[in-house]
Fold this sequence. Notes:
The protein has 203 residues and is mainly beta. It contains one helix and twelve strands, in the order E-H-E-E-E-E-E-E-E-E-E-E-E. The model has no long low-confidence stretch (mean pLDDT 79).
Amino acid sequence: QIGTDGNAGRNFEGLIDHVRIHDRALGLTELEALRAVMQPHPIEWPLEEGSGTTTTELSTGTLSDALPVGVTWSGDVPGSNSTASLSFDGSSGFGTNLGSAATGIEGSGSKTISAWIKTSTTEQDGFFGYSPTLGSGPGQDIRLLVNGNGDTTGKLRMEVSSGGFEFGSGLNDGNWHMVAIVINANDGINDVDTYIDGTYTSR
């Protein structure tokens, strides 16, 4: 799901653009290229329509569910290669009907999840939830959030069914940031690599 963690109802308040899932673990050079050029990927929601009530997954042409109340198009974008983003008011996110299993991106296999986000949240807001089989198998319950309060304010939080960790800082400063989670085959949560704005970020 996009704009929510897909689990505990922690919805995102802010802007999201260019959500991608790769079928392998990307290296730093490739992540830097993503920041400079928005190029095609195995699964990608460019979020570039700018109007209407649905958004199309680029690689397969699969439509998302209808955008709910509280999710609207915005002209606030992270760079000149983008013309639109989606604005979330914190009341809801939206689920997609793309079957990740059909693209070979599921379970304990390698994957890279990336997105551009912009928020000033003072809550714990989820902006991505990944559960291709409803979290019933290894590696199939991933939630990405921004912490907006407490000792970990501004940090990127990754959660799985067995726990979670925080990375980086300053993500709720009201500016655009590119975040990426790189997972190699059979990685545990302690092995995941996290990049913010193209820079490796440790816990």
